[in-house]
Amino acid sequence: MTKREIIQELLARRQKFTHRESETIVNAMFDAMANSLTRGERIEIRGFGSFAVKQRRARQGRNPKTGQLVRVDAKQIPFFRAGKELRIEVNGAEEAGR
Amino acid sequence: MGVVTPQGMTKADLVELIYERVGSSRKEACEVVEAVFAIIRDSLRHGQKVKISGFGTFLVNQKHARRGRNPQTGEPITIDSRRVLSFKPSQVLKERVNDGSKPAL
């Protein structure tokens, strides 16, 4: 599923909105979440999961092709942890669905 | 823009943002925010990945059953095969998080 399909599905489920509004809603939500992470904030969506920015320390790495040692700088990475409900849903569907 | 609460962003901030953008009522804004997450959940529940350009991809990975050990007792146990969710942030988001001085909006 892509963002465009989310917009279409939202249109199907919430018929009060126009296509333009549906687009605005989905884009605004993810832009706001991306901006929040960019500011280093945590995002908590109950029933879904939480996003946070994790700090990775600088380390010695190797170029996997040449084996040469390289320095990997410290960096920050966006991180998602699924909420308990979603974790159970994702796992549970397999037994029920097949 | 959504209100920034001290603990970061919550669903309430997204509801406020949508209310400001598309109006009607807070109740409707709340329902529509819930609907977006419900759509994503439904897709993931069916094992289908969800790709949001500029943000990232939610993926469902199948893990094989394996032999494990109870780390406290050392007792061997079987860990059943299961499906786990993972999130792969987009290149754009990774770059932005490392260069917080340049928000796209």
* Mass-distribution shape of chain A: elongated
User: Structural class of the helices, strands and pairings of chain A?
Assistant: alpha+beta
**Helix coverage percent of chain A:** 40-55%
Give the number of helices of chain A. 3
Strand content of chain A: 25-35%
Q: pLDDT under 50 segments of chain B (min length 5)?
A: none
Helix content of chain B: 25-40%
Mean pLDDT rating of chain A: 90
Radius of gyration of chain A: 19 Å
Shape of chain B: elongated
Task: Note the main sheet of chain A.
Answer: 3 strands, antiparallel
- Spatial strand order of the main sheet of chain B: 2-3-6
The N- and C-terminal alpha carbons of chain B lie at a distance of 10 Å
Quick one: how many beta strands of chain B? 6
Q: Provide a count of the helices of chain B.
A: 3
- The percent range for strand residues of chain B is 25-35%
Strand line-up across the major sheet of chain A: 1-2-5
The radius of gyration computed from the alpha-carbon positions of chain B, rounded to a whole number of angstroms, is 19 Å
Strand count of chain A: 5
Backbone structural class of chain B: alpha+beta
